[in-house]
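[Help] Beginner question about ligand-bound structures

Sorry if this is basic. My supervisor gave me a protein sequence and a SMILES string for fe (ii) ion and asked me to "get the holo structure". I don't really know what that means in practice or what format the answer should be in. Inputs are pasted below exactly as I got them.
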Amino acid sequence: MDLFDSTSGKNKNWLPKEGIVNYYGKVFNQKESDFFFETLLNTIEWKNDEAYIFGKKYVTKRKVAWYGDRDFEYTYSNATKRALPWTKELLELKQTIEEETKETFNSCLLNLYHTGEEGMAWHSDGETDLKKNGAIASVSFGADRKFAFKHRETKEKVELLLEHGSLLVMAGTTQSHWLHRLPPTKLVRRPRVNLTFRTIIG
Ligand SMILES: O=C(O)CCC(=O)C(=O)O
Ligand SMILES: [Fe+2]
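Answer (accepted):
No worries, everyone starts somewhere. Holo just means with the ligand present. The predicted complex, written as structure tokens, is below.
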């Protein structure tokens, strides 16, 4: 077996060009994953997300939360959020993910999808407050969900499954050339928690 095989495992790049997406698979075992899932559900300050689109206020069914090293302000969809201080479990997760990825992160955006009917539309995470081409590490707990990428120009699509306890890393120029989404599905009835560790500048 080739330990540095670039066609499989975490070294495989799922994107055919202009970006890097590595799927590490499950980096937490079943017991750890169940623990983090339950604990995050119960200890995170979940709130419905608010967005202003053409001045109209929208409230999502999905819940969100935002944590960081200090009280960073973070603006998207014309709404400004202020980061809360890390919880014990979030710091543990951050440390594990930093060791796995050999990257560092100073903030984390969390999403809670109550059922498969909640998802996230096509977008990229290249907001101005984020470090340019900084890696984004996405950790998933709970229901397995499909995740998709679409090239901005060619519309090429790449799909993968984000499993309970898994880690996905988006790096390099991914956010400039590719959109991503979490497609809604009627087939999933259980909740899912997703954490995206990021680097905020400023
Ligand atoms: O839930 C996911 O897997 C993706 C979340 C996402 O893309 C984001 O928070 O920017
Ligand atoms: Fe995203």
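A couple of things worth pointing out: Residues 123, 125, 180 surround fe (ii) ion (ligand 2) (CB under 6 Å). Residues 135 and 183 are 22 Å apart (CA to CA). Feel free to follow up in the thread.
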